[in-house]
Amino acid sequence: MQKFEFIQGVQNSACHRFIWVNGPVIVGAGPSGLGTAACLREYGVPFVVLERADCLASLWQNRTYDRLKLHLPKRFCEFPNFPFPDDYPEYPTRRQFIDYIESYADHFDIHPNFRECVHSAHYDATLGLWRVRTTAATDSAAARSGPQVEYICRWLVVATGENAACVVPEIEGLRDFQGQVLHAADYKSGEKFSGKRVLVVGCGNSGMEVSLDLSNHNAHPSIVIRSSVHVLPREILGKSTFELAIFLMKWLPLWLVDKLLLILAWLVLGNLEKLGIKRPSMGPLELKNMKGKTPVLDIGALGKIRSGSIKVVPAGIKHFVGSNQVEFVNGSQLEFDSVILATGYKSNVPSWLQESEFFNKNGYPKSPFPNGWKGSRGLYAVGFTKRGLSGASSDAVRIAADIGSLWKQETKQQQKKTVSSYVSCHGRCISQQF
């Protein structure tokens, strides 16, 4: 397959390289960035992909636990123009999904510039272009202060997504805790926690699955469920709950679909308040649309909670006491050997993008889905929809079509100028001969 990354570079006296990109710069080589690159490839648009890690989809490769599987059926998680292999199960494993990502990049001939960390990007109004400055992504301070590369481009695609940085809560006394403390991003397996008392902070899908994995490895997990949360069965009558919701929404209003899902969940899972899990007043789909909060899809954690293998702490943490105790807001105190923070992720866009019209202060597009993919002056965002892989794919298709259309128009105009210039020059040559 023909390569399209045509760039031109010059060197200045300050040891900075300046590279003109004849197309968009895509920041991030995860599913969002790769999907956009593949769609641009279909339009014949050149691009450069910048990635701070040394691999594709670093979140999936380096920051996920071993037992992870896709929460939704594979057909809802496909990248644009590339179905999953037929022999993959309905819910592919982490390793299968990584293989799928690597096959996707190979198929569309996508070769990111790895270990390039973007530390600033701004729009140069004088040039009418974006200037994206990078340094080598390394732990060495000397390397970080070394030569920089500045990419100059007309279009900038922000594909770092919603999960670029870990959210670590400030909890009084946590630094004095003598046991192991880690974020769920660094959790791999419950094997080394066997026999230990582990406090899991956070009750989303990650918190529930980490607790389940800990229990399966003979640890003694307790999960903090401070606020209300929707827990739904992953499947109802052998069908994906997500697929069922999509089907019902074709015929029924959202509020009624929410009612039906909650009734079905109660029939399958029972009364969760008896387990210390309270449901929000807003329905699961409405809550997802309004606040981006994803319901937990149960794959076995509730059964462990019922049996007592996973303890529920229905109160927030007040503070850590001494070397291994935690006091909760209800006054109870418990001892733990380890703490796992399943407290989620956030955007890192504010740390490097100098722009305030399109993105808010938290690093998310100000316009909600489905209008949060396009800003002004050639700025785009992909993977910020709070709708997972399907939302990222939708963004990628829109962005590539928009840039592809502009690219086609400009290519035609350039061809016309070239032909006109040739005819004019050729005509002058003929008149000079005669």
From TrEMBL:
Cofactor dependency: FAD
Question: Which organism's genome codes for this protein?
Answer: Trapa incisa
Q: Which family does it belong to?
A: Belongs to the FMO family.
Entry's Gene Ontology BP terms? auxin biosynthetic process
Pathway noted in the entry: Plant hormone metabolism; auxin biosynthesis
Q: Name one GO molecular function term.
A: NADP binding
Q: Does the keyword NADP apply?
A: yes
Q: Taxonomically, which superkingdom?
A: Eukaryota
The UniProt entry, under Pfam families, shows: FMO-like
Instruction: Give the InterPro entries listed for this entry.
Output: Auxin_biosynth/cation_transpt, FAD/NAD-bd_sf, Flavin_mOase-like
Keywords, ordered alphabetically: Auxin biosynthesis, FAD, Flavoprotein, Monooxygenase, NADP, Oxidoreductase
- Catalytic reaction annotation: indole-3-pyruvate + NADPH + O2 + H(+) = (indol-3-yl)acetate + CO2 + NADP(+) + H2O
Q: What is its EC number?
A: 1.-.-.-
Top class in the EC scheme: oxidoreductase
Identify this protein by name. Answer: Flavin-containing monooxygenase
